[in-house]
Amino acid sequence: MTDDSGNQGERMAVGFVGVGNMGWPMAARLVEAGFAVQAADGRRAQVDAFVQQVGGRAADSLPALASASDLVITVLPTSAAVGAVLDEVLPHLRPGAVVLDMTSGEPAATRRFAARVAEAGGVMVDAPVSGGVSRARTGQLAIMAGGDDADIERVRPALDAMGSSLLRTGGVGTAHAMKALNNLASAGSFLIGIEALLIGQRFGLDAGVMVDVLNASTGMSNSSQKKFRQFVLSRRFDSGFGLDLMVKDLGIALGVARDTGTAAPFAGLCRELSVAAQALLGPGADHTEFAKLSERLAGSVLALDEGPDAPASGA
User: Fold this and answer.
1) Both 60 and 163 in a single domain?
2) Domain containing residue 238
3) 106 and which of 74, 79, 241, 266 could share a cystine (Cβ 3.0–4.6 Å)?
4) Model-level pTM?
């Protein structure tokens, strides 16, 4: 995968399906790294804009993309969307091609997809990411990877172009399970942190001061470091990661709990509250607007804070 000039991606043909909020900057990193990228998306105008602004080529169709690609990458909203893409891709898959699903998907569905890919003569790796749009733009995503080590190594140059850390989780499907569990832990720490801020503010503490103390103490979390000031106290609520997607991921995490017979009462409560927030706010809300449900329940609004801004961090 490396030519004499040291360009890792020049000889790997990549079909990239899904150039939305996350897929666009991820695909852009591949183009910048020298990969031959064909882009596809349900919105042709989005693909045309990507090609005009970033580079690569627009795929004429999903079958054409598959037949021309050594690596097919999917970054889509749901596993159902991935399955629909595979219906069109697999009959035209190159022998030995790798399907790299970077969607935040359902582990059980991923394992079914992997069997279908194998029947079509390819291999599958699941590789969801963490870090949000800002880290996608800079190529600093944390990437979880599930699959055979040899298959992961084959696509390592592409993964390295999009992320700064690669975390192997085990066989196919384990990365998607880990992604959902990561987002469960993230949502839980966000929610309890917001409740702590509301309690403290009602007591008379300054919300900004509380965030500073949390970040210097054992209550520190990704939310306290990169979300409370930046998106909640500022009232911006524009992290770039949707509440609808968070609710989906929490449902996946609870599905893993059910499948493994694991009691998870706090996880269940967290998802119930996220669904309530979704109903309160309507579609399209940012996941940091989850705080508005806690504010409504507490009868208080966290005070505007003009503290320093830091890089955004998605779930």
Assistant:
1) yes
2) 178-298
3) 79
4) 0.89
